[in-house]
Design a protein that fits this description.
Layout (H helix, E strand, L loop, with lengths): L9 H14 L6 E5 L2 H9 L10 E5 L10 H11 L4 E5 L13 H6 L4 E3 L3 H10 L4 E6 L6 H13 L5 E5 L5 H8 L8 E5 H7 L6 H4 L3 E5 L3 H13 L5 E3 L11 H10 E8 L3 E10 L8 H5 L14 H6 L30 H8 L3
Helix pairs in contact: 1-10, 2-14, 5-6, 6-11
């Protein structure tokens, strides 16, 4: 198949769904977690849960990059936005995410220069056009976006651009998966692994999961992709890592992209919203590129971060609770007036529930 429509073909979807129903063991429960926000949105958008037998439970995990970014990062960006001659650049989803005391969108309304861009290279171009300004790019996301941000830093060094830096909040997925398997409140049988991340890292970083008795399939993002991946998970008798997303990735990933990441970033313990610090799950800018590290260049000072205690985004991100279990959901928290990050991002679990689950 070559086109999107083929991956949304109803006859093929019904055929795979029927095979799933025939393949499950009727007396057991299957708990599969999708750890990519794009998977979560597709599952809700196309009503895939309704096609599955009742004993397959799909759990949404921490795969939305905006959702797992802690308040401290947003507070730093807001503090920087108040500085003279400073332009904050970011992906659109970050604008509405509430920090401890405000959001970038609110600060922009108050006069801060906050601009949406589509990449770190866009931010670098803005720096070239505004030599009298300091341009800060908010580097968030997983292994999917980190290589392109690394390239923007390499390009800034090559072109001797002095007024560009990155506030680095990148995270990596394997250690987070390891943490989830150690949470006694979760009883995960298998993972729908993220297609975009896996295109970069390949399958080697996931090989510890079968040793922990977890079935794994790297899945694409169309309805047929996801159902085929679920069928592969159901059929695994011995846990292993398989690839459904073969049209886009191979088991070795993208070595050039990983080389860019390794050149600019190094691993460090990173704080995930709702999960806390996870060792070797974040990327920070290496000392050799500290001229482009916002944390080193400006040393942003912030008050102690705080969370809204009524918001359960942390438990939603971990898959411990579903959005309707939050007393704010759909009442005080909706996409127009988000309280938590999961309601802001287009890949957020709460936003997907709100938009597609017929609350």
């Amino acid at each position: 198949m070559k086109y999107i429509d083929e991956f949304r073909n109803k006859k093929l979807i019904d055929k795979v769904a029927s095979e799933i129903r025939r393949s499950v063991e009727v007396n057991r429960q299957y708990n599969f977690m999708e750890v990519c926000g794009t998977h979560t949105v597709s599952i809700f958008r196309f009503g895939l849960k309704d096609l599955l037998p009742d004993n397959i439970n799909l759990i949404s995990g921490p795969g939305c990059p905006v959702c797992v970014t802690p308040n401290e990062f947003i507070d730093k960006a807001i503090a920087l936005s108040a500085r003279k001659n400073m332009i904050i650049t970011t992906f659109g989803d970050m604008l509405k995410v509430p920090g401890s005391y405000s959001s970038l969108e609110k600060e922009r309304a108050r006069g801060a220069d906050v601009r949406m861009v589509y990449s770190g290279i866009d931010a670098l171009d803005l720096a070239k056009k505004n030599p009298g300004k300091e341009i800060v790019f908010l580097g968030v996301g997983f292994e999917t976006t980190a290589p392109t941000v690394a390239q923007s830093i390499i390009a800034a060094r090559k072109n001797k651009v002095k007024n560009f830096s990155v506030l680095c909040g990148h995270k990596t997925m394997p250690e987070a998966l390891k943490t989830l398997t150690e949470d006694p409140r979760l009883n995960i049988d298998g993972f729908l692994l993220p297609g975009h991340v896996s295109v970069i890292i390949g399958i080697t970083p996931y090989l510890f999961l079968p040793r922990r008795n977890k079935r794994c399939v790297v899945a694409g993002f169309e309805p047929l992709d996801i159902l085929q991946a679920i069928l592969m998970l159901v059929k695994q008798r011995t846990p292993k890592v398989e690839i459904q997303y073969t049209r886009m990735m191979n088991k070795n990933g993208n070595a050039l992209a990983r080389e860019s990441m390794k050149k600019v970033f190094e691993e460090y313990p990173s704080v995930w919203r709702g999960i806390g610090a996870i060792k070797k799950s974040g990327l920070k800018i290496r000392k050799e590129f500290s001229d482009f590290d916002t944390d080193k260049k400006f040393i942003p000072k912030i008050s102690k971060p705080k969370e809204n205690r009524a918001c359960i985004c942390g438990d939603v991100i971990k898959g411990v609770k579903a959005p309707p279990e939050c007393k704010l959901f759909g009442k005080l928290c909706d996409p127009e007036h988000p309280v938590g990050a999961c309601m802001v991002s287009s890949e957020g679990t709460c936003a997907a529930y709100y938009k597609y689950a017929g609350r």
